[in-house]
Amino acid sequence: MRKIFVLFAAAAALTTAACNTVSGVGQDAQAAGQAVENCAEGRVC
Q1: In which element (H, E) is residue 40 found?
Q2: What is the pTM of this model?
Q3: What pLDDT digit, counting tens, does each position of 15-45 carry?
């Protein structure tokens, strides 16, 4: 029973970490796209 609990806790922690990582990548990609758009429109690069 204890092994199952430990495995479940580890899986939950990894899932949470993966969600945060994917969210961060999305924010980074959005910031990069905004920078490219600003340069294309002649604003500060």
Answers
A1: helix 2-40
A2: 0.54
A3: 777 777 777 788 888 999 899 888 888 887 7
